[in-house]
Fold each of these.
Amino acid sequence: MNYPTLEDYVGRTPLVQLKRLPGSLAAERGNVVLAKLEGNNPAGSVKDRPALSMIMRAEARGDIHRGDTLIEATSGNTGIALAMAAAMRGYRMILVMPENQSIERRQTMKAFGAELVLTPREGGMELARDVATRMRDEGRGRVLDQFANSDNPLAHYEGTGPEIWEQTGGRITHFVSSMGTTGTIMGVARFLKEKNPAIRIVGCQPAEGAQIPGIRKWPEAYMPAIFESGRVDLTENVAQAAAEDMTRRMAREEGIFAGISSGGAMSVAVRLAQELRDAVIVSIVCDRGDRYLSTGVFPA
């Protein structure tokens, strides 16, 4: 008998209806807000999907072989997911990340056996990406490059998008997602638009001055190569306070313990539910809240 392995449980995450947050106005307008709970993946985030996809597809092409060293720049979730996937598949994993990321993220990566290279916080993810590239050029390992690797959005085109379509019975009208590497929104948008071009794709980026883990507004020189602006119908700016408040409300009012980028996207989804009529709005809940406890977003 062949038993399932851990990688068999990446994906197929729950889609649940919010009962309290949308409020009575949304109900009067016939709107439904649904949360795709990606924290239910084995390593706790939506990034499990592209991490496994990038490693297994690179293996299949013969680009990497077990025992190789992999290098990746990350702000957290992709690094955790890659560390898990590398442990499962037999790779040495070096993760390059800004030093100001939460201690829970760093500890989780190390628990999976990854090695960390911390870069000065002032340089942000841009510096982390530069350092990873330099390490690759020095021959210290292979960079999978989530920002330019088509295997990233492909995981969502083949997995997340079809799941949402099936779970809503094809009734989805709006898809809301934070934008970081943009792999999730690119892959899901491509699939959903093929099914129904009328579906609106809403991307969330940080408002001026906001520092929201997992949501980025990239300088032009660092814009992810996988990003295609034409796949996003509407871009919404998310304020720090709105993201953090919604993150706390999701836990208190819906029992959904999630990270700050999820709160940012959900704040947009709930607002849309006050404005639209007869809409089925799906928002990605990227990860779990336990990796943000030290940030102070949740009351002690």
Amino acid sequence: MAGMLDLIGNTPLVEITRLNPNPKVKIFGKLEGNNPGGSVKDRAAYSMIKNALERGDIKPGTKLIEATSGNTGIALAMIAGLFGIEIELVLPSNSTRERTLTMEAFGAKVVLLEGIEACRDYAEEKGATGEYFLLNQFANADNYMAHYRTTAPEIWRDTNQGITHFVSAMGTTGTIMGCSKFLKEVNPNIQIVGCQPTEGSSIPGIRRWPEAYLPKIFDPSRVDRVMDIAEEDAIQMTRKMAREEGIFAGMSSGGALSAAIKLAEELEEGVIVFICCDRGDRYLSSELFG
């Protein structure tokens, strides 16, 4: 018998077959939507709360606060509830209604503001009062260390140590930082590829941060290459992924697969793994699948 927290991680790798343009290259998606909270953020959320409890940063009666664009908030709401901790989540007002309702279903208080930068400022101000504990996924080493300890070792194991390229969206950058740290230790030749939106593109889960808001956990030396993804390419690839590969995911996953396919076209051979961040049902009220 397993509790909910025991179900976080060990998500499957699935091969992309119909959309892969190069028969000499394997492309695999790591299906993070299979986590109990429905996204890759379950890993970081559990790591941040668990380690803060163990350090004594969170004491009985402590309230948590965090700014999030969605998936981290859902994961934190679920896990905070399991630990009996109150949490306030601050989201951009353009977040899909499904995300807000899911957080509230798990017992979180939700505040909507204009833009993720405003959300981060608000959460930091409240955290500074001492009334709340700010987890701050953008500067919290427990974020990327979750992926160093779990996500990357699973990929290494499940590709039989054959991975040659790792592709990930860059939001808080926790996933790519932690996976890069582990994968470069076991094989320095593995190429780490990050995805960011082209200028003017809006892709939930992938950010091009202003300098002042660049996540403090981000170390550019751990990323070998950054690929710019256009919003329309991410949308079309997300739809194709559902229709042709049977993978129902969000737009950041489509963006990462778009990068993986471009990469496959350049290679003579290789094994590419991209992070399929979440599930598509979080976006049904948007125009993503319209």
Amino acid sequence: MAFELPALPYGTSALEPHISAKTLEYHYGRHHQGYVNKLNELIDGTVDASKSLEEIIKSSSGTLFNQAAQVWNHTFYWHCLAPNGGGEPTGPLADAINAKFGSFDTFKEAFNAHAAANVGSGWTWLIKTEDGGVDIVNTRNADTPIAHDQITLMTIDVWEHAYYIDYRNERLKYLNSVWNVLNWDFVAQNFAD
């Protein structure tokens, strides 16, 4: 079973001015597509060809893990963004954020601090904890919380290819801007599941 690049849930210019069409053309159209292509090369003719993406992530290491995890991470990331996103979460998700961080503004500061301090390439995640709360975790390179049986709620890609075209080396400027397109409906749905 070959994997395919999942369709973006919006057009390539839908997140402007926060994330440009040019960034999405490269990030989605080249980087994400490249991970899908390499994953398919690696699994062709192997027992992994019949596995789901999640099964490959949980049973592999090295290059195969990296390609599968990057396909999963990027697909998840695109859904964390929306053209009419931004604002603040409501309901049980907002309650969990306030219980952990005291306020949404404090949460944003903590998330940005984690993401800014995520040295090199990686991802910063909001996860659901075993007690039903929330927490922020960083992963390096292609690593993903689902490899560690953690429930993912939201992520921001902090690999340079996620922001370099629009923001050059100003990661914090990218982080501050991406809050304007966060898809809180998607995050709340993940929290409720």
Amino acid sequence: MSEAFIIEAVRSPVGKRGGALSAVHPADLGAHVLTALIDCSGADPAAVDDVVFGCVDTIGPQAGDIARTCWLAAGFPEEVPGVTVDRQCGSSQQAVHFAAQAVLSGTADLVVAGGVQNMSQIPIGSAMTAGVGLGFAEGPFAGSEGWRRRYGTQVVSQFRGAEMIAEQWGITRDAMEEFALASHQRAIRAIDSGRFDREIVPLSDVTADEGPRRTTTREAMAGLPPLAEGGRLTAALAAQISDGAAALLIASERAVRKHGLTPRARIHHLSARGEDPVRMLSAPIPATAHALRRAGLRIDDVDVAEVNEAFAPVVLAWIKDTGADPARVNPNGGAIALGHPLGATGARLMTTLLHELERTGARFGLQTMCEGGGQANVTIIERI
């Protein structure tokens, strides 16, 4: 059976909203990590079969197939095509899946996968509300008769979905604040100990992620108002709005031999599943169960898990249902501390996961993230 290998993985620092990366054009942000990816891997850019990038809200500077634009902005060969993927927050994780599937099918040998997002320039939800006069919570499906027949006219939003999870899984605000504080503490420890140094390609004199808050406390979190009246969630329990990019090089066995590349991990499993689109954010739970069954693994076989911290209850519910060891989940912090540049986060998580497996000498890493529409991708990689 053919294999799909991860050859290299790099990312930009994650910039906070209005921070040092906010003025960088998304094409230049993506071009920056693509240049570093090719340089670090030693691959011939002319040998790349395709560039698959994730991006959400592809309007304005992110429109026009940003994958293609990033590649060209990096100065690479015009004959290499690019395509942009939108599976909401999991867009660049899906980009990795498409790249690996192309390699596994034998229709490609060398594919770049990644993602880019500048949320400072293009606010979250811009594509959903542009020119149609809808509120963010109404979504693009508000006028669909078929949708109304199936799901009624209830509000559909990530905030409501997170509240529904917290209520259904019995997750208290206190537990969520403890988790959020730990995310910042883990991220700060990772930064201070240099764990991210090998994966980050500095940009605009920014060498580290801007999101982690060194001075945050449980007391400060407890003083924040809920996002909805009577709710449990606050801004401290949600992912930060951010800017960033990340990219990976996926290769076949043939490409490894032909180009003298050095594999760092192999794609052990990839899948995606859907669930309730109203509750929206709980799909990583059944998707993980499905992936483990298909891969013939147990949760205890997973040495490191990266579960996107869109909201604290998403990860806490996942831990409860899967029985995963919390110490193995997001060991270097997550999006609550590091930020969540939507279309880039999947590739950022995969990059961090790979480097953490190498740092610790572990074998299996699992990545999953909740996505709009009630979906989730799961990728399991095995360190070589």
